[in-house]
Amino acid sequence: MASYRFSDRHPMNPERLGLTARLIRDLDVLGRTPSRVLAPYVAEDDQLRTVHSAGYVEAVKRASGPDGESSPDLGLGTEDDPIFPELHEASARLFGGSIVAAEAILEDQGVPAVNFGGGMHHAARAKAGGFCIYNDAAGAIARLLDQGAQRVLYLDLDAHHGDGTQAIFWDEPRVMTISLHESGRSLFPGTGFPNETGGAVAPNSAVNVALPAGTRDNGWLRAFHSVVVPVARAFEPDIIVSQHGCDGHERDELTNLRLTVDGQRQNALDVAELARELCEGRWIATGGGGYDIVHTVPRVWTHLVAAAAGRPLALRTPVPAPFREYVKERYGFDAPPTMGDDTELWWRSWEVGYDPGDPVDRAIMATRKEVFPALGLDPWFD
């Protein structure tokens, strides 16, 4: 999966995947509970075409060929998505990983699956964008629908709006997309505002919470529990597919949020609880953005895997010595000593009141006013 490498200087560095796998191994996360590791495969063209146009798939293949044919109008060969020789195969393997996850969920209905190499949420039906070529989460959803799922909830927790996934299912009433992200006024891709609520065939199937730059854990978690939880309960999904980009961390240089590992771990626990409550544990979790590849990404996604396995790691769990030694030798600086950022984690429940002077509360209220009445939810209090 590490062959998904645009260039040595590109922010989407696949070493983050290897470091995450190493930390999972060194903490014996998978040994603490029954689990299976399934190999991803390069998805077939017909699988890719469930969510991408045939012409786009062919353009990606041409970009991967010996002539390296760019198609900037399709997002291929741009600064964000430069072409490289294994572009198609590497992208289709990430996609195949999420198809494997979907097939595992269909086979064993009560066991979550995690593909932290996936989460390529900016890829649209016929265009690459934001470091994303093929939209694996959308592919997993399409597979679930094809096999009989009636309602799939897609939950996007990346700092960036999940625009590609939203667009692919814009007119699909069986899918609800919820994206919690930094406002498009200050961050790529410039979309994801509360009035984006789904197409004519699927009204009220898209929910967007556009949070202000500088939002911290308390604001992010307040928004999650004030919007995501009640909307998810109203939708009553069969299966949850989530995207856990960790680029909202305060150390990440590509966004303006100020989240911590502690808050992002809490989000993983919240989604795990929703999956248990609403769909008997049927949950596929993917990775996504995250560009602080040593301090942040491995810890956040290790917490994600542990949460999915039902054996969460304590925030004060020491980072194992072999991992710290590897980081020191490989990168020349110290890894974090523990699995948390030592944050005092708290958030206000929406029921205790709305502060019109708080920009986070205004963002929450904008979304609630837009979508809650149509879902049978009161826009002020649940």
TrEMBL record:
Family: Belongs to the histone deacetylase family.
Listed name of the protein: Acetoin utilization protein AcuC
Keyword terms: Acetoin catabolism
One Pfam family per UniProt: Hist_deacetyl
Gene3D superfamilies (UniProt xref): Histone deacetylase domain
One Gene Ontology molecular-function label: histone deacetylase activity
Top-level taxon of the source organism: Bacteria
UniProt xrefs under PANTHER family: HISTONE DEACETYLASE HDAC1, HISTONE DEACETYLASE HDAC1-RELATED
Organism field: Galactobacter valiniphilus
Pathway(s) served: Ketone degradation; acetoin degradation
Family matches, as InterPro entries: AcuC, HDACs, His_deacetylse_dom, His_deacetylse_dom_sf, Ureohydrolase_dom_sf
Annotated ranges, domain Histone deacetylase: 10-307
Keyword Nucleotidyltransferase: no
Biological processes per GO annotation: acetoin catabolic process; epigenetic regulation of gene expression
